[in-house]
Amino acid sequence: MAKNLFSAVTIFLSIGILTFFLVTEDGMKSLERAVSELQPVWLLWILAGVLAGWFLEGYVLHLFCRHLDQTWTFGKSFYIGMVELFYSALAPFGMGEPMEVYRMTKLGMETGAATSIVAVKSLVHHGVTFVYSFLLIAFELNYFRTKVSNFAVIAVFGLVTNSIFIVFVLTFMMNERLTDSILRVVVRFMDKIKLHKLSQKFYDQVHGQLMVFHDSSRIFGKNYMLYLVAVLFTVVQITVASLISYFVYRSFNLKGESVFIMVAADTFVTMAASFIPLPGSSGGAEGGFYLFFREFFGPYIIPGITLWRFSTYYLNILLGSILVYFGAKRYSSD
C-alpha cells in the first residue's frame, strides 16, 4: 500500500511540474495550436527512437551479463533494463539500479555479480555521457555561452556531480580495503546497539558478496574489448535518445536548426539533470530543456517540453509498467 502511494505521489509530482509549464506563458493555447499542426511521420520517428533506446539499454546490459553468465538470455537483460528505466522514473535517488540488482538476483544471479554488472554498466553510461556531452558542447561552445542563460553554472554543476559519481564508483570497485572498512563500521554500529548475533551474520553474508563483487569487477577490468564494445553501443544509445528532441522539433513542422546542436543540447541537459534527486530528474529536465531549446522552438517551447517529456519519461512509466509486469511473469517461472 505504501509503495503504491509513493509511486502515485511521484507521478503526480511530475505531472504537477509539467502542468506548471503549461499554465505559464500561455502554454495551454500554444499546446492546442501545436497539436493541430503535429506531423504524424515525425511522431513515428519519436516512437522508433524510444523503442531503439530501450533495446540498446537491454543490449549494453546484456554484454556484461553474458560475460559473467553464458546462460543469461537477452530477454532477461531487456526485462532488467526496463526495470531500471521504470523505477528510475518512479523513485528518487537512482532507485532504478538497486531494483536492477534485486530483480537480477531473483533470476538467479549472485548478488555480488549483479551489483558488479550494474556498477560497471552505470560507470560506462555516466562516463560516456559525461565525456560525450562536453565534447559535443565544446564544438558549439560560443553558441551555448551566448544563447543559454546561466550556462556556466549548469556546466559546473554537471561537471562536479558526474565527476564525484565516477570517482566514487571507481573507488568502490577497485579498493577492497575501503569497502571492507565501511562494512566493519556498520558491524561495529550493530554491536553497539546490541545486535551481536545479527552483526556477525550480516558481516559474513555481505563480505562474501563483496568478494564476488570485486572478483567480478576484476574480470571486467581485464577485458578491454568488452569495454570498447559497450562504450560504442552506449554512444549510439545516447545519440538515439538525444535525437528524440530533434524529432519533437520536426513534429511541429519546424525546420532549419542544426541537428548537431540539438543532439549536443539534449545530451548536455540529460547529463546535467541526471543527479537531480527527484523521480525522472523532474524539474531539472524540464527546466534544462526550456533553457537550451527555447531558441529553437520559439512559441512552441511549452508544447515541445510536453511532447519531449511524454516521450522520454511518461512512456517509461506507461509502457514500462506493462513490460516489467509481463517480464516478471515470464521469468519468475524459469
Automatic annotation (TrEMBL):
It catalyses: L-lysyl-tRNA(Lys) + a 1,2-diacyl-sn-glycero-3-phospho-(1'-sn-glycerol) = a 1,2-diacyl-sn-glycero-3-phospho-1'-(3'-O-L-lysyl)-sn-glycerol + tRNA(Lys). Belongs to the LPG synthase family. InterPro entries: L-PG_synthase/AglD. Catalyzes the transfer of a lysyl group from L-lysyl-tRNA(Lys) to membrane-bound phosphatidylglycerol (PG), which produces lysylphosphatidylglycerol (LPG), a major component of the bacterial membrane with a positive net charge. LPG synthesis contributes to bacterial virulence as it is involved in the resistance mechanism against cationic antimicrobial peptides (CAMP) produces by the host's immune system (defensins, cathelicidins) and by the competing microorganisms. It is a multi-pass membrane protein. Keywords: Antibiotic resistance, Cell membrane, Lipid metabolism, Membrane, Transferase, Transmembrane, Transmembrane helix. The keyword Transmembrane applies. NCBIfam families: flippase-like domain. It holds the Pfam family LPG_synthase_TM. It comes from the Bacteria. Its EC number is 2.3.2.3. The lineage of its organism: Bacteria, Bacillati, Bacillota, Clostridia, Eubacteriales. It is found in: Cell membrane. This is Phosphatidylglycerol lysyltransferase. The chain crosses the membrane at residues 5-23, 43-65, 77-95, 115-139, 151-174, 224-247, 259-280, 300-326.
